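step=encode ok
step=design start
structure_in=
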């Protein structure tokens, strides 16, 4: 089952794909296109006084965009072991580090290196429901361009709630997806990569045993991250969606097996990394897969939906740090920020998209009434109606209402007039941290040589 979210839909990541225009209007950020050097700007000299000057045509090298056809035999990605110099990142040998870029002739300021000469970073996230990979190069400060991506629904956590173990079919699906990811990584010169596994592998009795199999069969060594790291990475991936005048944010990531919630206080001086402003966080051991397996996902009555909301609300009631933003909840500069398939699905239904479009969803604002209407609409649909919606489909039709129940419990604790939708998360957070730690945005994006 291929996931709709490949991550490749937005060539530049780090800034919101929807930026505010005048009077509350929104304009979509489009991919930057290369322009010819012989454009309108060069014609002004032709109208100068006196005889027109002859202009010599200059041959420009063709701009090559990111297809790094590296030969696997020359660029084999090693299986990272325990000898990494940094525990959080897989460091690859110096032989695969891209060369420094020589300064090019330029007209206005320093020109960025060609895309194919920039250092390449990779992030892989094996979750309870999805296996996702992003490969990217740094561009403008704090941003990067995705040059390769992969996403597949593997449902690794299927049956985990009942049995406490990863099932054989689920592990087989995940390994097949990870083999594809391994091939993609081995065929590129990767500066740094981080490969993570989350709740399904954290909680399963055979989680470590499964990752040993992944290392043997797919050639990838994944690390199981703790819940605090997962919450921090989710925040790091969404930093550019929090605007300058924001004072407080409740960021939540509704996953397949767990849901991370971070309270972010920006009322004081703001640092470049949003994660530095987390004042409280929690990780609920419940996600769309685990909740749907306990309550049912295909046939969900209003009573069942209410019971799911109550279950999550009870878990949130024991979160001691839930009031750390009470002084900001009434501020117009306080809002919710959701990064998960649940909120992106709601946004797609809200926009009545004929086909899911990441560029229109990522960064979208939804007001309280719009969210209410969309949740009510989905609760009123039966399973077949959910399957028929192009932004839900058969792969998510039995999970989306569990996600809505988690969302409703969150909104009850932190009511807000606005919800911002993020089609980004852990992978983007990993890439942002890898690039920042490597100095990739120093000296106009060239990175360290």
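sequence_out=
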């Amino acid at each position: 089952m291929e996931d709709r979210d490949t991550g490749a839909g937005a060539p530049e990541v780090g800034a919101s794909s929807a930026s505010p225009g005048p009077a509350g209007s929104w304009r979509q950020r489009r991919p930057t296109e290369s322009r010819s050097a012989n454009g309108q700007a060069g014609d002004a000299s032709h109208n100068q006084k006196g005889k027109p000057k002859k202009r010599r045509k200059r041959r420009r090298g063709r701009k090559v965009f990111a297809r790094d056809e590296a030969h696997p035999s020359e660029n084999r990605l090693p299986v990272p072991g325990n000898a990494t110099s940094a525990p959080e990142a897989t460091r690859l040998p110096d032989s695969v580090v891209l060369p420094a870029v020589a300064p090019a002739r330029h007209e206005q300021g320093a020109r960025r290196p060609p895309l194919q000469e920039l250092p390449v970073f990779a992030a892989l996230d094996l979750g309870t429901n999805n296996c996702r990979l992003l490969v990217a190069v740094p561009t403008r400060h704090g941003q990067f361009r995705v040059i390769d991506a992969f996403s597949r629904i593997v449902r690794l956590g299927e049956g985990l709630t009942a049995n406490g173990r990863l099932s054989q079919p689920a592990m087989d699906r995940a390994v097949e997806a990870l083999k594809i990811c391994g091939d993609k990584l081995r065929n590129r010169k990767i500066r740094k990569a981080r490969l993570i596994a989350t709740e399904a592998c954290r909680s399963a009795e055979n989680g470590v045993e499964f990752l040993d199999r992944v290392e043997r069969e797919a050639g990838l060594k994944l690390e199981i991250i703790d819940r605090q790291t997962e919450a921090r990475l989710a925040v790091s991936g969404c930093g550019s969606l929090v605007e300058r005048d924001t004072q407080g944010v409740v960021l939540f990531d509704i996953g397949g097996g767990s849901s991370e919630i971070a309270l972010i206080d920006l009322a004081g001086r703001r640092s470049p990394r949003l994660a530095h402003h987390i004042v409280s966080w929690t990780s609920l051991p419940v996600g769309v897969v685990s909740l749907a397996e306990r309550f049912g996902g295909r046939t969900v009555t209003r009573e069942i939906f209410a019971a799911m909301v109550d279950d999550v609300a009870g878990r949130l009631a024991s979160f001691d740090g839930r009031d750390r933003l009470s002084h900001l909840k009434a501020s117009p500069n306080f809002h919710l920020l959701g990064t998960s398939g649940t909120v992106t699905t709601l946004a797609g239904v809200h926009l009545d998209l004929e086909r899911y479009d990441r560029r229109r969803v990522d960064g979208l604002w939804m007001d309280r009434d719009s969210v209410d209407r969309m949740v009510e609409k989905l609760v009123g649909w039966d399973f077949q109606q959910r399957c028929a919606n192009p932004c839900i489909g058969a792969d998510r039709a039995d999970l989306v209402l569990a996600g809505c129940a988690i969302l409703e419990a969150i909104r009850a604790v932190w009511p807000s007039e606005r919800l911002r939708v993020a089609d980004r998360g852990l992978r983007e957070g990993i890439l942002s941290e890898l690039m920042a730690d490597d100095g990739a945005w120093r000296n106009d994006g060239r990175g360290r040589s």
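step=design ok
step=annotate ok -> Residues 15-54, 57-110, 445-449 have pLDDT under 50 and may be disordered.
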